[in-house]
Amino acid sequence: MNNYYYPYYTRAPQDESLINNIAKAINGEYSAVQCYEQLAKLAPSAEVRDQILEIRKDEIRHLNTFSQIYQSLTGKQPTPQISEECPDNFKEGILAAFKDEQKAVDSYLDIADSTQNPYIRRVFKRAAADEQNHAVWFLYYMMENR
Cα–Cα distance between 146 and 140 in angstroms, integer? Predict the structure, then answer.
């Protein structure tokens, strides 16, 4: 008797490098969400605070989307970790945020280029554009707070 039963859903073998890079991106987003909450409290004005909180919303959206991708690839929920400590003064905090955002742009473009999956590619290209926009805001605040 032939067994024609096939599981409804089977997980294809995954690229471990892609999964590891997405896990790093999740940790980076998680760290940014925590840090930007702190930076918003240190902001010199309500206008700056509100913009940082707007950036933080983008980071939460990235964190959630990257976590969903990670779960779909691995079948497991990610366990985000703080990957970098946030400086406790505004000037140092925005410098660190600027550098992190710029690194994220390169990292996310690398992730987009490393996959054949059009959804993952699109998500990470969009996130890279968001991160570049965030970096511009942090650069502006660095210039304003020299």
Answer: 10
